[in-house]
Each structure stands twice: as structure tokens, then as C-alpha cells.
Amino acid sequence: MAQVPTGSLFSIASAFASPKTITAITNATEALVSCTAHGYTAGDIVEITSGWGRLNLRNVRVKTVLTDSFVLEGVDTTSTNFFPAGTGIGSVRKVTAFTQITTVMSPSSNGGDPKTVTYRFVENDVEYNINDGFTATSYAMELDADSIGSAGYTALKSLTDVQTQTTLKIVTRNGSIVLIPCTVALNESVLMQDGQINKVKVGFNGTGRLTRYAS
Asked: Which domains does the chain have, with CATH numbers?
């Protein structure tokens, strides 16, 4: 069923646990990660650092767990062309706290568009297009300037100062989830305009492939 943005909740990862070493990742329809005594539970959100470029810095939900391994929900690594066997090791860290961003207005996304390369052979009078990945994804929004001092505003300000890797989480009204690896850029210069409330702008600069879950 179609839905509108109204009722969506935006949160930023404001705390992470210490990274844990990944000793192996399988090639499977849902990748199994070997990580000794990880301590995670189903439903945890983790950030993966991996030798596999298509997995590196992705934010993923933990699906099932054993003492020394866990499954990455919805992460298909079956292709050994994209995910060469034995080279995906790295580290993983759990998001331990999400802080809600309140007074959000005019959220918008940019990027994620296909990139193409156009070429033509001399002996041919027709050009060709081939896909060459995707542009970087970013999100932007406005906040009520008077939300300064709120937990969400404070978290955004801190993350802007340190420019560390974090996660933007969007939960829509029907429960679907978007996880976006990013850095934060909060512009505290107050935008004043007649007939409107005072606002500030914040940008979330995508640093990897986003992840979506239906619920």
C-alpha cells in the first residue's frame, strides 16, 4: 500500500560498541559471519567493515545468532565475482544507541542515480551506454531552530564536530526501515523567512550502500 512521509521517525546512531574481529564470512543468500563471543542478539543493528567493497560500511540487521556467529539479514553474498571467497574478513560494531531527531521538516534524498559511460566505436554510427555504478546517496532536512538543546540536536552537533562514521535510521509509518551509513553536517546558521518558523539545515552524506527492510 502506498504511504506518505507523515509519521516517519528519524534517528541517528549516537553510540557504538567496540569493534569485534570478523574471522570469516560465507558466500550465501544470507551471509553467515564468524565472530568469536560477539554477544549480539537478533534485531541488533551492526556496521560491517569488510574486505568486500560491496559490503564495506553497510549497516545491517542481525537475523539469527549462535555463540560465535550471526546471520546478516538480507545480505546476499553468493556471487564469488563480487564477493571473492575468503576475502571478506574485517570487523563489526553494534549500534548501542539511536537518538531520535525531532522537529523534522522537508526531508529529501539526493543521489543514488545510475552512472553510465557512453562510448562509440569508430566503425559504428551508434553510441552505447553501459552502467558504471551509482552516485553517492545523501539526505537533507530542516529542523526547528528552537530544538537546540534537544537530544537529537545535540547528537547531530557532536557528530558534525567529530565527523565520525555513523548511521541514519528512518522508520516509516508502516514500519519499514532504511539504514544509511553517513557522516553528519549540521548548519547552525538560522534560516529566517517571513511567514515561516526559524529553521536550521542538516545534511547526511552517504558513505556506502543503504539497506532497506520491509519491517
From this structure: 15-96 (2.40.30.180), 100-213 (2.40.30)
